[in-house]
Amino acid sequence: MGVIDVEQKKTIGFVFIDKFADWEFGLLSGAATDWFAARAVALSPVTGPVRSIGGLRLVPDRGIGVAENSDLDAIAVIGSDTWPDEDAPDIAPLLNATLVRGGIVGGICGGTLALARAGIFEGRKHTSNGAGWIESNLGDYAGSSLYQDVPYAVRDAHIISAPGSAPGTFTTNFLEALFPEKAGQVAEMREFVGREYQAA
In this protein, which residues make up the domain named DJ-1/PfpI (predicted)? Predict the structure, then answer.
């Protein structure tokens, strides 16, 4: 009997903490699983449920330990009102371990603070919620001179960052990085999503 060559599904870990932003992950998680046959798992530093800004309850699949997430091909850190807090969780080990093995790391809105804290923006172009926003929460950080003050997501190799107002370009840049062989399909999605903003 011949061996059947089954393409391994790529797995994206979505990091959620309390008061996560409802609008920042749905397009990415839905498109990745439905259109690109990926697998999405919810990660959180807490074992119990977390609540969104809108009050929805989410129960994470697993924690943020490096060992338990060694299967991840990518991580998307979703924004939250609590990422600016001084006692925000430290997920630097997980983010850096994913990058070291060639994975994709993205952060949107407050999630970009986790990337900045981890030193991931050093030597890389990136963006967030406006010029000076990261510094206003963290002070000076590695890579601050490469900040791009733009209203859409920025991709620098395996790193994607975006303001909270740009879940569409965060999604398309993330998928383009994770599925380089499907650039044409991502381009179709970018055009599809962009139709909403075209003048009637």
Answer: 12-176
113 in any annotated domain? yes
Domain that holds residue 111: 11-194
The answer as to whether 5 is a domain residue is no
Tabulate helix, strand, coil % of the chain (nearest 5): 35, 20, 45
List the pLDDT tens digit at each of the 200 positions of the chain: 344 444 579 999 999 999 999 999 999 999 999 999 999 999 999 999 999 999 999 999 999 999 999 999 999 999 999 999 999 999 999 999 999 999 999 999 999 999 999 999 999 999 999 999 999 999 999 999 999 999 999 999 999 999 999 999 999 999 999 999 999 999 999 998 888 888 65
Distance CA 51, CA 143 (A): 32
C-alpha 103/C-alpha 10 separation (Å) is 10
Distance (Å, rounded) from C-alpha 31 to C-alpha 94? 24
173, with CB counted inside 10 A (0-12, 13-18, 19+), is buried
Number of domains in the chain: 1
How many Cα atoms are found within 13 Å in the side-chain-facing hemisphere of 53? 13
Q: Kindly state the DSSP code that residue 80 receives in the 8-state scheme.
A: B
SS (H, E, C) 137-193: HHCCCCCHHHECCCCCCEEECCEEEECCCCHHHHHHHHHHHHCHHHHHHHHHHHHHH
Q: Which residues contact 4 (CB under 8 A, 6 or more apart)?
A: none
